């Protein structure tokens, strides 16, 4: 062996716990990162257009598609009759979501038929030529009108209860009842939904889908096609954003393309226009939260009773687990001695609402933080004091049990919040703001510090499993595949770091490959912030198996003890010899060592009994806190976020740069949800904010003017997660609640902080001005 | 007649005929040229994922502007240099400094918006050596990112600002002289170009006279300047428009003349160009322009288009009406002028005869001692359409009485409209807090606004009154407004 080639590098490039660029960053900036619409199109590709309902709730009396069929370029029209299997894409198995409506439409924008044409333009034009006759039925689109109409529930509601809330709520000296309206949110992933289906022999279909859940797309396509799941392969290299919007909502486009592709034996692509995407796909659930809280003069909570009603849309979709998670976070960071929480998942004649970063958690927490505000204004104290007074306690304090009977064992709230409070100079700034407001007739300021405690794990215990596939080829290059999908969060990068670290090779030796149901089956959605926890561990498990075989081989070949085999950067020490990694791999191949392994992981120790409302649904909690400062204009309701300081817990970060990116992005997205992003349906049930011209997500000029983001670098996950890290996708979204509460404080200043402004979300300039007016009247 | 247009795409000369007048640059790039780095995010000029640079010859030589390829029609591209994201990196793959800064600062997550951001940052980098945070935010007003929260992108812009590699590295610096020569050679077509496909015609006149003649012959032609409105008729409403007359290149329509009496703005002056002059001459108006669309839309959209389309929520009519602007329409047979407010007859109806087009607008200069202000209210501060937009122009006499006041609002009625009752109630009164308080309710006689997704009628009514209060405070030297940057206050 040529010893001169031996590497002496002390550490590899790209181990765990280092700030690495996103693996596709270079491709992103050059425009060479391939999204599905960028894949070279198969010969003879056809394009789908969609015929959508223009009624919110109606019987279909007749459908005349003659003009559609004869329009230029049209090859076929697909209706429910063309579906070989089930006309159903309900991810719940409840069969309440037809792929194409037949005799009943239940929301404006529901697909009725699809047109398949030579070009996308032709398909879109032809789709508008249908003549559909309807008989209108009564419709309701929001929570209040759903209640007025006695709307049914889309799933069985959940109840969480602990202690004796019925009696105890009457005991303390103070009690407040109130209600909060919380708006929904459009995902506004920059890449709209898309599916490209290429038919093959037998039942085979290759499906490229922009999805967070390739396995579900596979299952749904098989279900709609009436074919075995093995015939369908679903691939996803990357999405142009997901945020939960591509967890179940991509199924319909993939299934429609599959039906057309098989019928015509040609490749078919569906790429809805932005407006269609926004009309046809679900959003974050709106909520109305009716709360009843009893507390003492200090502001200590004694009992809470809250009802969380949600606009679910016309079908269940994920509304069950979303409303469940709202209840799981209805305690936010606070111990409720006596508590009763219930959900009310209401059916409405709107598109079926779905997963969105936080998955009901943000709405649950927002209700809890409103309760804190109510108490603070009632007892005349800084809301931060009320928060600290009510935080979960340390183990042994008797204040650690959640409403779902899980102990909070890893509580770092007080340390985190007090560190942020000190570093952000919260107290002095709050006083300065109060002084400023006293002398400022028009502009008012506000500041708020709010905490985050977010439960990590799918509450559907079975989903907490993952697989990975690792091959080492004869040149020592490594092929990595796992069930997680890349939507920008950097999952692929982090998992590659895990594998590079495990083998102690530079990360550029690890090829990250597109997620496909053909390599790792039966995967869960990349959701619930779980991507790295689950897939990182599964990939680690695969690498561990191969490493063990390599160690076995080396110890046999070199006749040394296994303990004498050590993986060093890009090389392996075997006894006294140093062997380059690729040399060892090649030698192992010739010794007929299997250089491929499937890894698997399931989260330990979790269980949940929904009926009883008891269990340990979460493996651990992720924590964080934010201080936001805003200024509002009391003449117009306009506002600006002057500054935000964040301290967030990601355990021992696998990649601090990517984690900070998640935190900054989540915060601004959360700000959008609570401020300018407003979904507005007209009286016909039409969503009128259906494009970026009318639906306003934050711009660069909306982000906090001063934006300080720090990781709680002292934190380590007490559970043995990958590298002792913690999930980061969703938790920081809720840091933005501090913005809404800071606006609320600025509003409260017009009535000398004596009245809780009860500012609902989104706090558009209009809502802010109207709250100012209301408080002025109350103050007079 | 010439049946093809010519332009340069990245490095390549292109002669293109046989295209539809509604074919967009984005579809051409992605479908015909397979240049898939440029993305479609919204197809309405609001997200910026399709941002490319378009270089053109002007009185300043060769200048490049960011535009939205999704609503830019091919027929508007004769004699231009189109630069896409694929043109930036060196042949050997070395990233352009703008791209490298985005990588270094972790400026991409999902990456779908990234090429558009790179192009907007590139446009900024080309035109501004020392951008302030305000300049950067302004340059990014037309780009949406849903992943990063923008902080790393702004940092990338700051990092790259000072980085000036050799002119040989940057493709547009390196090839400037050559591109200039090539554009000169294809620029001047001696006669009107007409490109036809399946009976649909793109007409590109060579002069304003030719344009007037064409419009006389084809009174039903759709006139397209910036396409920031008509673009959406096509991409969203799928309207068929034929023929289309493209006038964005007509330099005769792009002049701004300034003298002591006021400003004469050609109908084809883009918001960006208008901003430069207005920021100097009527600063309050300049600040408003900075809040219309994003940079890409401001580079394309024109003052004339904002008037001609008659929208009740166009941003420039309220300040123009408050300033007493005069509109000049032109046709093959001559010109006529009118006060701008008379142009707007009713919703969707304007005083423009077949064959007429908006030629220019004269904006009288407010007197030194006059007060003028314009306020726009929208859900999001930047790149949003007005919920309401109010403009105030006040002259006081020596005793502090209102000698004259003109108030105009958009978003409060079916057309941009003056608040004549409020004006009357104020005229002759002492300009004081009590006068203001007394006339607030007169707004109810001028406007009965609607409720829609931008605001309720109640908010519009209340905010209109409050804007009068704001204007009063401003004239009393007690202005209190939110401002993101200290400079803006100065």
From TrEMBL, chain A:
It comes from the Bacteria. It is an enzyme of class 1 (oxidoreductase). SMART domains: Ald_Xan_dh_C (SM01008). Its cofactor is Mo-molybdopterin; FAD; Mo-molybdopterin cytosine dinucleotide; [2Fe-2S] cluster. Its EC number is 1.17.1.4. One of its GO terms (molecular function) is xanthine dehydrogenase activity. Keywords: 2Fe-2S, Iron, Iron-sulfur, Metal-binding, Molybdenum, Oxidoreductase. Residues 30-138 form the Aldehyde oxidase/xanthine dehydrogenase a/b hammerhead domain. Belongs to the xanthine dehydrogenase family. This is Xanthine dehydrogenase molybdopterin binding subunit. The lineage of its organism: Bacteria, Pseudomonadati, Pseudomonadota, Alphaproteobacteria, Hyphomicrobiales. The gene is xdhB.
Automatic annotation (TrEMBL), chain B:
This is Xanthine dehydrogenase small subunit. SMART domains: CO_deh_flav_C. Pfam families: CO_deh_flav_C, FAD_binding_5, Fer2, Fer2_2. Residues 3-88 form the 2Fe-2S ferredoxin-type domain. It is an enzyme of class 1 (oxidoreductase). Residues 195-368 form the FAD-binding PCMH-type domain. The lineage of its organism: Bacteria, Pseudomonadati, Pseudomonadota, Alphaproteobacteria, Hyphomicrobiales. Keywords: FAD, Flavoprotein, Iron, Metal-binding, Oxidoreductase. Its EC number is 1.17.1.4. GO terms for molecular function: 2 iron, 2 sulfur cluster binding; FAD binding; iron ion binding; xanthine dehydrogenase activity. The gene is xdhA. InterPro entries: 2Fe-2S-bd, 2Fe-2S-bd_dom_sf, 2Fe-2S_ferredoxin-like_sf, 2Fe-2S_ferredoxin-type, 2Fe2S_fd_BS, Ald_Oxase/xanthine_DH-like, Beta-grasp_dom_sf, CO_DH_flav_C. It comes from the Bacteria.
């Amino acid at each position: 062996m040529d010893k001169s080639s031996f590497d002496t590098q002390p550490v590899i490039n790209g181990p765990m716990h280092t700030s690495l660029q996103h693996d596709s960053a270079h491709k992103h900036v050059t425009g060479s990162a391939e999204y599905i619409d960028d894949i070279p199109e198969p010969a003879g590709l056809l394009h789908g257009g969609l015929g959508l309902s223009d009624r919110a709730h109606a019987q279909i009396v007749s459908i005349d598609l003659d003009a559609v069929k004869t329009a230029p370029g049209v090859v076929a029209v697909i209706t429910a009759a063309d579906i070989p299997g089930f006309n159903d894409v309900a991810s719940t198995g409840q069969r309440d979501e037809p792929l194409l409506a037949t005799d009943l439409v239940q929301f404006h924008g529901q697909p009725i038929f699809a047109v398949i044409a030579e070009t996308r333009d032709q398909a879109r034009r032809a789709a508008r030529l249908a003549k559909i006759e309807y008989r209108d039925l009564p419709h309701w689109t929001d929570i209040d009108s759903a209640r007025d109409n006695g709307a049914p529930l889309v799933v069985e509601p959940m109840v969480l209860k602990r202690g004796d809330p019925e009696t105890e709520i009457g005991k303390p000296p103070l009690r407040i009842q109130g209600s909060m309206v919380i708006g929904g949110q459009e995902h506004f992933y920059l890449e709209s939904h898309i599916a490209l289906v290429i038919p093959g022999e037998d039942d085979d279909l290759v499906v490229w889908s922009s999805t967070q859940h390739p396995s579900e797309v596979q299952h749904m396509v098989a279900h709609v096609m009436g074919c075995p799941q093995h015939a369908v392969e679903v691939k996803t290299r990357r999405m142009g954003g997901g945020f939960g919007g591509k967890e179940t909502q991509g199924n319909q486009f993939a299934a429609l393309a599959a039906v057309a592709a098989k019928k015509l034996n040609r490749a078919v692509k569906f790429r809805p226009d932005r407006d269609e995407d926004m009309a046809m796909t679900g959003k974050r659930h709106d909520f109305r939260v009716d709360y009843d809280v009893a507390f003492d003069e200090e502001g200590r909570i004694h009992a809470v009773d809250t009802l969380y009603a949600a606009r679910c849309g016309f079908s269940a979709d994920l509304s069950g687990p979303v409303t469940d998670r709202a209840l799981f976070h209805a305690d936010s960071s606070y111990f409720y001695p006596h508590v009763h929480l219930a959900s009310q998942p209401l059916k409405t004649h709107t598109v079926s609402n779905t997963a969105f970063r936080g998955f009901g958690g943000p709405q649950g927490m927002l209700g809890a933080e409103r309760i804190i505000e109510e108490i603070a204004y009632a007892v005349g104290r800084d809301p931060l004091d009320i928060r600290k007074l009510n935080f979960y306690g340390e183990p042994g304090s008797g204040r650690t049990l959640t409403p779902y009977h899980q102990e909070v064992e890893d509580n770092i709230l007080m340390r985190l919040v007090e560190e942020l409070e000190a570093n952000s100079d919260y107290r002095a700034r709050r006083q300065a703001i109060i002084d400023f407001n006293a002398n400022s007739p028009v502009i008012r300021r506000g500041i708020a510090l709010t905490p985050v405690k977010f439960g990590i794990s799918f509450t559907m215990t079975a989903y907490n499993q993952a697989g990975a596939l690792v091959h080492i080829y004869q040149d020592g290059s490594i092929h990595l595949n796992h069930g997680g999908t890349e939507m920008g969060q950097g999952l692929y990068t982090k998992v590659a770091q895990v594998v590079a670290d495990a083998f102690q090779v530079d990360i550029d030796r690890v090829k990250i490959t597109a997620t496909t149901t053909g390599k790792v089956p039966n995967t869960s959605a990349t959701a619930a912030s779980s991507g790295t926890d689950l897939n990182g561990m599964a990939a680690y498990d695969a690498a561990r198996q191969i490493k063990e075989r390599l160690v076995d081989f080396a110890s046999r070949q070199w006749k040394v003890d296994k303990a004498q085999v050590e993986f060093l950067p890009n090389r392996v020490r075997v006894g006294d010899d140093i062997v380059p990694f690729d040399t060892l791999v090649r030698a192992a191949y010739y010794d007929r060592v299997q250089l491929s392994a499937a890894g698997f992981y399931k989260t330990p120790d979790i269980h949940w009994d929904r009926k009883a409302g008891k269990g340990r649904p979460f493996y651990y909690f992720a924590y964080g806190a934010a201080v936001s400062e805003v200024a509002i204009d009391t003449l117009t309701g306009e506002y600006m976020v002057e500054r935000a300081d964040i301290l967030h817990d990601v355990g021992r970060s696998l990649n601090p740069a990517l984690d900070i990116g998640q935190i900054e992005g989540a915060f601004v997205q959360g700000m959008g949800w609570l401020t300018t992003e407003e979904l507005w349906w007209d009286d016909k049930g039409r969503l009128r904010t259906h494009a970026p011209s009318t639906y306003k997500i934050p711009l660069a000029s909306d982000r906090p003017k001063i934006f300080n983001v720090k990781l709680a670098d002292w934190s380590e996950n007490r559970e043995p997660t990958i590298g002792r890290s913690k999930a980061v996708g969703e938790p920081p979204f809720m840091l933005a609640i501090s913005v809404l509460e800071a606006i609320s404080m600025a509003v409260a200043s017009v009535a000398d902080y004596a009245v809780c402004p009860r500012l609902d979300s989104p706090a558009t300039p209009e809502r802010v001005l109207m709250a100012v007016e209301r408080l002025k009247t109350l103050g007079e | 007649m010439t049946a093809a247009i010519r332009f340069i795409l990245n490095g390549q000369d292109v002669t293109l005929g046989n295209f539809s007048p509604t074919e967009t640059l984005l579809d051409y790039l992605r479908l015909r040229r397979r240049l898939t780095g440029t993305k479609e995010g919204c197809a309405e000029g609001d997200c910026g994922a399709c941002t490319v640079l378009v270089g053109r010859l002007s009185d300043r030589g060769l200048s490049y502007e960011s535009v939205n390829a999704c609503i830019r029609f091919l027929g508007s591209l004769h004699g231009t240099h189109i630069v896409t994201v694929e043109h930036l990196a060196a042949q050997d793959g070395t990233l352009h400094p703008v791209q490298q800064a985005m990588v270094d600062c972790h400026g991409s997550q999902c990456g779908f918006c990234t090429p558009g951001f790179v192009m907007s940052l590139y446009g900024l980098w080309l035109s501004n050596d020392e951008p302030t945070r305000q300049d950067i935010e302004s340059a990014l007003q037309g780009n949406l990112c849903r992943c990063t929260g923008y902080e790393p992108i702004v940092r990338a812009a700051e990092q790259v600002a000072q980085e000036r590699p050799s002119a040989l590295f940057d493709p547009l610096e390196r090839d400037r002289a050559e591109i200039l020569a090539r554009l000169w050679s294809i620029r001047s077509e001696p006669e009107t170009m007409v490109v036809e496909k399946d009976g649909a015609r793109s007409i590109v006149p060579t002069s304003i006279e030719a344009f007037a003649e064409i419009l006389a012959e084809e009174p039903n032609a759709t006139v397209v300047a910036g396409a920031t409105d008509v673009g959406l008729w096509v991409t969203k409403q799928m309207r068929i428009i034929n023929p289309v007359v493209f006038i964005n290149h007509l330099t005769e329509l792009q002049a701004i003349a300034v003298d002591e009496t006021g400003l004469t703005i050609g109908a084809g002056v883009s918001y960006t160009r208008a901003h430069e002059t207005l920021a100097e001459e009527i600063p309050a108006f300049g600040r408003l322009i900075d809040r219309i669309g994003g940079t890409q839309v401001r580079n394309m959209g024109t003052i004339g288009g904002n008037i001609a389309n008659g929208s009740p929520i166009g941003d420039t009519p309220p300040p123009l009406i408050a300033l007493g602007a005069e509109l000049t329409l032109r046709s093959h047979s001559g010109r006529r002028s009118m006060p701008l407010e008379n142009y707007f007859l009713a919703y969707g109806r304007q005083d423009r005869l077949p064959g007429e087009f908006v030629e220019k607008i004269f904006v009288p200069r407010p007197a030194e001692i006059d007060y003028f202000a314009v306020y726009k209210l929208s859900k999001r501060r930047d790149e949003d359409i007005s919920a309401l937009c109010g403009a105030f122009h006040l002259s006081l006499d020596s005793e502090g009485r209102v000698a004259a006041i003109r108030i105009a609002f958009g978003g409060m009625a079916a057309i941009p409209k003056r608040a004549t009752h409020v004006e009357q109630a104020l005229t002759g009164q002492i300009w004081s807090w009590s006068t203001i308080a007394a006339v607030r309710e007169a707004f109810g006689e001028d406007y009965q606004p609607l409720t829609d997704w931008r605001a309720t009628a109640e908010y519009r009514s209340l905010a209109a009154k409050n804007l009068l209060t704001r204007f009063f405070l401003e004239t009393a030297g007690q202005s209190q407004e939110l401002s993101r940057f200290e400079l803006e206050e100065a």
